[in-house]
Amino acid sequence: MSGAPDRPAPAFLPLIVENLPLDDLAPYRQFVTWNPEWRAGTNGKPGRWAKPPRDPHTGDSADTGDPGIPETWGAWDDVFPRYDRVGFAPTRNDPFTFLDVDNSVTPARAIKPWAQAIVDRFPNAYWEYSPSGMGLKGFVRGHVPQNTVVPIGDGKLEVFSCGKFSTLTGHHLTGSAPTIGDGEAALAALMTELVGGTQKVDGGQ
Fold this sequence. Notes:
Elements: H1 22-25, E1 31-34, E2 37-39, E3 48-50, E4 53-54, H2 76-79, E5 86-88, E6 96-102, H3 113-120, E7 126-129, E8 136-141, E9 148-152, E10 155-160, E11 166-168, H4 184-196
Antiparallel strand pairs: 1-4, 1-5, 2-3, 5-11, 6-8, 6-10, 7-8, 9-10
């Protein structure tokens, strides 16, 4: 249920194509576009602006689940330059895992200490700012056995290898890798802590 929004859509960062790790991602026909969509609150929870994926060919909803419907995805050339909001849907058949570090950046664009501890664990990852500018997204080579979401600091960490898509902005985090490098060992250590309940990933913050 959508309903009428109680606030305008946020201002999203414009796409910077030249910073995207397209040498890594463009060989895969797994791109989508997206548009902000208001989701009304339920069960006492407030409404929010969501970013559902869209089929770049039709503009209809794209299925980025596991396994999803690949016919609702497209090649990079299907998405850009036709659209300026792009995303990528990882699957079990590609080498990528995405890390979504929500509420990890201050309004002054400083990375919060607990989030920096996560970034430091993945020195070979490509990191960029989320569309809102208030979060970080990291992309590495390697898979996790299960998608995981955990609260950390005053935000949350989501790790997924399939079953959903990630937006792409090209607002590259200075100092991080320009391409998507290996993160298999770092992912394994992270998942051991998350699933094992040791919860060390927040750097003690």
